[in-house]
Structures are given as C-alpha cells and as structure tokens.
Amino acid sequence: MSITIKDVAKEAGVSVATVSRVLNGSCNVSDESTKKVNETIARLNYSPNFLGRNLRKCETNVILVIMPTSEHSLYSKIVMGMQDYAGQVGYDIITAVSYSTSTAETRQMNMLFNRTVDGVILLGTQYDADSLNKLAENYNVALCCEGVKGANVLTVAVDDEQAAFDAVATLIKKGHKRIGFIGTNSSAISSTARENGYIRALKEYGIEIKNEYIYKESYDYDCGGRAFEYFNALAEKPTAIFAVSDLLAISAMHKAIDMGIDVGKDVAIMGFDNISMCEWIIPTLSTVEQPCSKMGELVVAKLIENMNKTTKDNHYYTVDHRIILRESTGD
Amino acid sequence: MSITIKDVAKEAGVSVATVSRVLNGSCNVSDESTKKVNETIARLNYSPNFLGRNLRKCETNVILVIMPTSEHSLYSKIVMGMQDYAGQVGYDIITAVSYSTSTAETRQMNMLFNRTVDGVILLGTQYDADSLNKLAENYNVALCCEGVKGANVLTVAVDDEQAAFDAVATLIKKGHKRIGFIGTNSSAISSTARENGYIRALKEYGIEIKNEYIYKESYDYDCGGRAFEYFNALAEKPTAIFAVSDLLAISAMHKAIDMGIDVGKDVAIMGFDNISMCEWIIPTLSTVEQPCSKMGELVVAKLIENMNKTTKDNHYYTVDHRIILRESTGD
DNA sequence: TTGTATGCGTTATCAT
DNA sequence: ATGATAACGCATACAA
Question: Other CB atoms closer than 10 Å to residue B282's CB: what's the count?
C-alpha cells in the first residue's frame, strides 16, 4: 500500500504522535525531532492521507461550488475570486456543473451530505425556498449571484432591481423613450427583479409602460435574436433595448446587424453581467458589471464564518454594480 | 454529532454489518432486515459518511479534472462528456481551475497525493514530461486535449497535425495560395503539431513556405488582432488565415472588420476547436471541430481502466476531428 | 443470514 | 517533549 504516518514514525525513530505534531505545526516538539521527521517525510516522499485526517477532524476544508453551466464567464470570474480568497484562508474550492438539471444538482449535493465537503455554494439553483431552508438548517449552504425568493439562506448578489433601474435610467437620460426589455420566464429572482427595475425606471421618468415592449422567453442564445425580430416588427419600434443577460443582448445585436440596422446609432442595446465577450465583439456591448471577485470572496468568507456558528448568518448581502458604456449604446 | 451507521443499526435492531450490507447492496441479507434498515435510514435521514467509507475502501470514486481556464467552452464541453460517462459508471467528476499557474496546479494535485481523489485528468498542463512520467508511476493521471512531448502518460486528443493539415488543405482547395498561420510560442504540443500540419499541407500542394506568413505569439485574445494587422501590412497579403484557436481567429476577424475588410470574401479565416462562439458571431467562423463528448468519455473510461491495473496503459489515443465550413471562409 | 471484531490513517487525550 | 492508545465511521473477514 501507500506510505503512512506509521512508516514515517518508525523510520524517524519517533512515535506517530510526534510526526502528527510536526505535521500540524505543534510547538511542543523539539527542534531535533522536527528535523528528523521532516527529513524522513521528504526522503520517503510521504503525503498525509486526508481521508484519515478529515475523518478524524470532521472537516475537509473543501467547499463545493455548483453551477448551472461552466460556459458562462461570469461564473468563471466569480469562482476565480472564490479560489483567491479560499486559498488564503486554507480552503480549497472544487466545482461541479449541474447543467441546470436537478438530478445532477442533487447528486452533487451528496458531497455535502456524505461529508466530502464542508459547504456548498450554489451559483443559481434548481432548489426551491423550502428545500433550501431545510437544507440550511443542517448544512452550510450559500447562494451566490442568484437569490431564491423566500429562502432564508446566506446569499451574495448584486441589487438586481436597482442595477436594472440604473441601466434603464441611463438609456432614458440618453433620450430614449421607447425601451424594449428582454427578460426570461425563468423563476430566477434576478430576472423578475431586473424587470421590476426596468418598470420602476420608466415610471420614475414618467414613461408609459407598454406590454408590447416586454419580451420574455428563456436565457438561450437564440431568444435574444427572436426578441429583436419581434421588437423590429412593431409599428413603433423601440429605440433602445435592455436585456437581462449579455448573451441575450449579443444575440439581439447580431440579429439587428443581420437586418442591416446600425447598433449604437439606430438602436441602443445594453446587457447585464459584463462577460468577457462584451469587449470581443463588434460593436462592443454596454452592460451592467457585476463585481465578480468581490462576490466570490464575500460569499466564501461568510460561508466559512457560518461553519463555526450554531446560529447561522442567513443575510442577503448585496454588492455594488456598475454601468459600463460602450459602442452598443453609441458611446 | 451527525447520525451514523451505528444509530441506524440500533434503531433498526440489527448490527452495523447488516446495515452496511444493505447500504452496499449485498445479497446475503433477508428481505425483512433490508426493509427494516431502509425504513430507518429514511426515517433518520441517514447519509453514509464517505470519509469513513473511502478510508476503509481506499477509494473515493472521484476524478479531479484540472483545467487552465474555465472560460474556454471547449473544456466545458469536454467536462460535460466526462460527467455523462462517469455518472454511468459510478464516478463523480470534480473540477479545479489552475489559471495556467503551476502553483495552483501543484496545490490541486495534492488531492491526488492525499487520496482525496482516485485520479486526475489534466486539460493542458504546466508539468513537463519528466514530472508527468514520475507522477504516472505512482498515481492515476491522464492528459486530455493537449499532449506533452516525451510524456508516456495516457492521453486523449485529436490528431493535431492531421487536423491542421486538413484545415489548410481545405483552404488551398478553395483556391488560396497565400495562407497566413497564427500560432503561439507556447510549449503546447498542439500548437507545434498544428504548425507542422500547416507546413505539410503547403508542401504537399506545392506551395512555397514563407516565414512571413507565420505569426506566433500567445493564446491571448489580442494576439489574433495583432497577427492580422501584421499580415495586412505585408506587400503580398495572405488571402486566407488559419489560426490554432477559435479565439485567435475571432480576434483576427474582428480586426479585419474594423479595418473595413470583408471576411469571407476579401479574406478567408479558419479557427480551431469549434467553440460555441463560432456560431454566435458575425460572420460565423469556419473551424476544426474537436469531438468533445467523445474525448471526455474516452479519457475517463481509460483512466478508470488504469485504476485496476498494475501496468498502466499510457497510449496516446487520437479521436476524429471534423472540418466545419461557415461564413468566414465564404461558405 | 447475522453479529463480532478488526483495521483503514489520522488526530487528540492522557500519561509520563 | 514524548509515547501509548482511543476514537472518527465505515466495510469486511470470520465466526456462528
């Protein structure tokens, strides 16, 4: 089999307890012993078996991040922020992709139940509020990026309603009065919150809310294009469009270009997320930036805090968003 | 503490051994006991502690996938293929991102050394051949997508040389004689193999190889644009460009558009990978498709096979590529 | 078919 | 400062 702490102890001429002490940086061990042990560890190329260690300590120092898709650079950036911070405080981040299926998500959650990880962060989830609340009673769970209505679970996200308000207000201040909204029928709280922000902005600036300017389907790429076709067929076409995701905005934009419409001039388009692609396409896309690193860091920090608490923090923390103007809005 | 197999046994009025047998689907247990045990498991909401189980069984049934970036949809698709297959054979896939740093990669490899996972699949790695060979002696390691020269380690990838040959041959058959190549200076075997394929294609079709048509920098997005600027400044500009990655091709394409050049007509551009973005941009990008699902499935299958072998399979398996023609080559 | 007992590799407690 | 040993939760060899 593989080499164990026992082998090291025997070779170094000390007890396993001493080796363990060296391994865990206890101060109650002589310099001589420390040296001997470290030498043999290096010589035998010993690496402690974490299954044994974790079993004994009842902790793994590993956090699992479950995301609906790995093709979303927003998530990638958030996970990066998580890893940065987690590494600093001695935790590892592992990720799993659920592909938005509850079966995969359930399966992955097993790592929480079977004690393979200390906690789970969900970047958008299939779970409903009740399930989440029950889950959070016994386990360390956090939501990031996407809250769940009615869930009293630690959450970190932008203020979606306010962010959408700011985005639409920006368009209005540019002179737009007919503003289309591309949303989704998903149960995602962010989608409805952004719709609410859109509506509030119109109201506050005294613009009539028209149902024909609200198009809702799904987050799939093609839906953006379909939305644009729909808007473009209206008698009074919108002069600006706000989409709840960059991908939808990009899809709409490309449909517009296909139709020979000058995006940024004939029509202004604004997305949400600030994924990398926004700067890679022509024209570049105006959008609402989510502070990915900060979100990742904060949710990990709060989750770890929760691990040592009996009464868990279940706040909904919001982080600052930022409007970024690029060519698609004529900037 | 949390509920254990002992609690279940006591509650069900049987021994822990019987509970364990039920848990592991042993046939040597009476229907009555099975029923009683399953009932109490459900009632107590018991979930076995895998740290104990894994420690005992010396296996975790978990495979770690380390990738340089999670922003590459090629990798996402491959991991999806891995998960599909792994799930079927009772394995879990977890992922970690190294951000192309050897420190992160080394840290993540610890999960292999400390027995937290049964094997590791590297989607492009910082390790050199010697390190990999030594690693593969004692652990279950596989490379996917990107081989390492001189490494005798289980590898699954496309035939990069032949794929590049086919791509360039396709351009030649379309009548192109001045073909630019955008590569990288990275040590990645795929990059040089694709360059070799490019050169062989020119040779076989009797076209002179000119150094000025070969531009090499890095995989960063901007390099594609710089490459195009360079080509466009030549006295005899290439009429077609083959890039070793879709992102480089897209960057070059956008630079061309910026310069008012009609991609697909004035210049043909072909990428490599067939990432989702190829179909999302205008014009759509011709490219070489890598069979992601198949690659993921194959590498997991072979790696699991290796786990039960004393002499490990260290073959370099190639999977079929496919040329996809879209608007960027005038199709 | 079932139960008892052992050990997986580690840390922590208790002596010394 | 160090060592002997119990315990973490589980699967399994062995006995019954």
Answer: 18
Token digits of residue A50 = 């974490």
What are B232-257's pLDDT values in tens digits?
999 999 999 999 999 999 999 999 99
- Does the predicted model carry a pTM greater than 0.70? yes
DSSP output for B204-265: HTT----GGGEEEE-SSHHHHHHHHHHHHTSSS--SEEEESSHHHHHHHHHHHHHTT--BTT
Which residues is A65 bridged to in the sheet? A95, A121
- Is the Cβ pair A96, B93 closer than 8 Å? yes
Residue B11 burial (CB count, 10 A): 18
Cα separation, A154 vs A234, in Å, equals 43
Residue A72 pLDDT grade (very low, low, confident, very high; cuts 50, 70, 90): confident
Is A222 strand, coil or helix? helix
Helix (H, G, I), strand (E, B) or coil at A107: helix
In which element (H, E) is residue B62 found? strand B62-67
Which of A23, A63, A75, A94 to mutate: most B Cβ within 10 Å? A94
**Per CA to C1' distance, which residue is closest to D11?**
B56
Residue of A nearest to B84 (CA): A104
